[in-house]
Amino acid sequence: MSDGSIDQSLTSWVESTGGETDFPIQNLPLGIFSESKGRRRPGVAIGDYILDLPAVIDLLDEGWREDLTQPVLNAWLSRGQGAQRELRLRLAELLSDARYRDDVEAQLIGRSEVRMHVPCLIGDYTDFYVGIHHATNVGKQFRPDNPLLPNYKYVPIGYHGRASSVRASGEDVIRPSGQRKAPDADLPEYGPSRRLDYELELGIWVGSGNELGQPIPIGEASEHIAGYSLLNDWSARDLQAWEYQPLGPFLSKSFLTSVSPWIVTPDALRPFRNRLPSRPAGDPQPLPYLDDPADRETGGLCIQLEVTLVTDAMRAAGMQPHVLSRGSADTAMYWSAAQIVAHHSSNGCNLQPGDLIGTGTLSTDNDEGLGSLLEISRGGKQPIQLPTGEERSFLEDGDEIVLRAWCESEGAVRIGFGECVGRVVSAA
Amino acid sequence: MSDGSIDQSLTSWVESTGGETDFPIQNLPLGIFSESKGRRRPGVAIGDYILDLPAVIDLLDEGWREDLTQPVLNAWLSRGQGAQRELRLRLAELLSDARYRDDVEAQLIGRSEVRMHVPCLIGDYTDFYVGIHHATNVGKQFRPDNPLLPNYKYVPIGYHGRASSVRASGEDVIRPSGQRKAPDADLPEYGPSRRLDYELELGIWVGSGNELGQPIPIGEASEHIAGYSLLNDWSARDLQAWEYQPLGPFLSKSFLTSVSPWIVTPDALRPFRNRLPSRPAGDPQPLPYLDDPADRETGGLCIQLEVTLVTDAMRAAGMQPHVLSRGSADTAMYWSAAQIVAHHSSNGCNLQPGDLIGTGTLSTDNDEGLGSLLEISRGGKQPIQLPTGEERSFLEDGDEIVLRAWCESEGAVRIGFGECVGRVVSAA
């Protein structure tokens, strides 16, 4: 187990870990939680429960006490993957070996009884654009014959995002106001967005960082990744269209970004990693600073993704959520997580523990797994039909979007990411 | 003195405050300093000295002790302009009234003996683009007949920047590497930037913040501004040209941003504020959420700006710095600081105490005050001639750029911002 893998046959004595849970003993993601009046502190998800880490620190390592009793995980993650791996293996032992059951079981709390928070104090949030089918779909709406710009297959395109408005799953989406100008209008006006959208992404949490001026070599980049969450890059398309030239998206994004609260580790994902998809014939090979043999073999993230929608009317009628998309991350991503990290630091920019990096919207190359309403409704030209008879081109007040992700593979126990949920409420 | 103004006739008992200092008793900017082995703590600049604030806390207000002994100013600035004003007036009293001289003088430290730091833990750094002559000059290089995009005169254009790589004046500029593609090259390559540039900007420090989802009305925006610094938005033009479509500048900027360490307050700038420049005939009036009568009267910042260059050869020959530009901020800015703050929060984005906002490059409408080499050398086509016989289109290793700013007005004591200095060193 020295590489952080937990045996696929291992079972936990915790109830609720046998079935279709997102959080079997092979997952063990960390997060930050609080009870109704308690302080924020680290916990690990197991079945329907969360294990209160400060409460079992005596069973872990006294040297970890300070970092594992903080209200954010930055200090812990700064220790790098070695410490994370030690903790992971020790937790697997505590949660499987019956000898520890009495002591540990007393520190389990039902997950439905706690509130989850953003797991880190995010120094910087960066959003990438590595979903090539998304980039193609969006590009086609502007340039039908030439959807991808000339730099796309050389540069992992990214831009700085807003850290202050990143919130944990469950935060309401207050419809943003801003300047918008209809194509046929003479003048822009300020008011609530009429083209509010979601974007399905993965979030990458930075573990150990790098010093300013010291790029992270591609061969070491994966060691700087603490783990992954779901990320919803809520977007106001009308604000975006009017504001984004020449410096990129700004207020169309910075009103809210939601993340699922659990950091799923690279070790938990190990059974679900695969070769990077081969590049289509004629595509350039990555420049040397982005090319690594090990990453080529295991850089693909075989993570299943799903987005559902519930409207107020559906909720009132007790209907099931409407599935907007189903797809997989690995074939959606033109650049791997390691390539993203190496590129981000390639100019000497210092990444810091707890930084958050979005992949960009992850869409499939067919219509089943489009990661935004902008794509699904073809820029609003083809509204989707809901079972209530309602139509949607973009989000209406009361609409709730749920992102889910999980991994399945022959011979491996299924693991999941939990949910990233947000419900739209009317403008302030 | 209830508005925070300090009488223009007031003099300090501190030596070195009588002449051409940037820091007479009418200025009193806060910063964070440390001595060789001491901790970081707040100080106020006066003449050639810094007053150690924790050391005189007994003469200030016991209720301020916690916030004024921190290694960053975030908590102090979060109190808003009322508290800043009280501190400012009390400091003016201590530094002018001979009764306090003995107690206070013992806590003065020569500024040449301390190291200055970034004054806040910057949660988010945002860069705007309100320098209309800069935007015009840069736009002309791409679109000679139509340099400004259609949104420019409606939207204060801005984009998210990188907070982790903001450093205080004096930090070396490690030449960044990155992807660059010459216009006549078939393929991009990765290597040290060949078109390294500076950008002359003002930095705006956020004082009190706003809650997520609660825009700051334009009439209240100036109350959220704690003060101003100089800001150098170092830029790698070759990286920028290749990477910036479609999501804006990224690695071409995030390798370093330098700020001068003193936060010059709105109260100190009061004698140097004037009417916003009238918009040229035909330009639209600001939308209502950006329009405020008080801001129209006093939103203009009559701040003089200067940039100088010293090369290795000039330094070896003992030559004076070469003046690259001289201009004024007020006529350079198409949008005021209050308009910047109101726009930034207009979608509900939460600004936080200690956030940093750049104005964008401030150039005059003539050739005397161009704020970047990109403009001065016409994109590299017209190198400047230096007294050594050297030429410069962009920065070479060893080049040192110094930004300076000061305010002068009839009947007012001159105040200054100090310097924002950076010297280029070769790629790592």
Quickly count the domains of chain A.
2
- At the fold tier of CATH, the topology name of the largest domain in chain A is Fumarylacetoacetate hydrolase, domain 2
Relative strand content of chain A: 25-35%
Count, helices of chain A: 12
Radius of gyration of chain A: 21 Å
CATH architecture tag of the largest domain in chain A: Alpha-Beta Complex
User: Which superfamily, in CATH terms, is the homologous superfamily of the largest domain in chain A?
Assistant: Fumarylacetoacetase-like, C-terminal domain
Name the average pLDDT of chain A: 96
Distance between the termini of chain A: 52 Å
Low-confidence stretches of chain A: none
Provide the structure class of chain A: alpha+beta
Level-1 CATH class name of the largest domain in chain A: Alpha Beta
InterPro entries (chains A, B): Fumarylacetoacetase (IPR005959), Fumarylacetoacetase-like_C (IPR011234), Fumarylacetoacetase_C_sf (IPR036663), Fumarylacetoacetase_N (IPR015377), Fumarylacetoacetase_N_sf (IPR036462)
Organism (chains A, B): Sphingomonas hankyongi
Keywords (chains A, B): Calcium, Hydrolase, Magnesium, Metal-binding, Phenylalanine catabolism, Tyrosine catabolism
Enzyme class (chains A, B): hydrolase
Structure description:
2 copies of one chain form a homodimer. Chain A contains 12 helices and 25 strands. Chain A is α+β, with helices and mostly antiparallel strands and 428 residues long. Chain A has 2 domains: 30-117, Fumarylacetoacetase, N-terminal domain (SH3 type barrels), CATH 2.30.30; 125-425, Fumarylacetoacetate hydrolase, domain 2. The longest helix of chain A has 16 residues, at 81-96. The first copy, chain A, is globular, with a radius of gyration of 21 Å. Chains A and B meet through β7, β10 and α6 of A and β7, β10 and α6 of B. Chains A, B: Its cofactor is Ca(2+); Mg(2+).
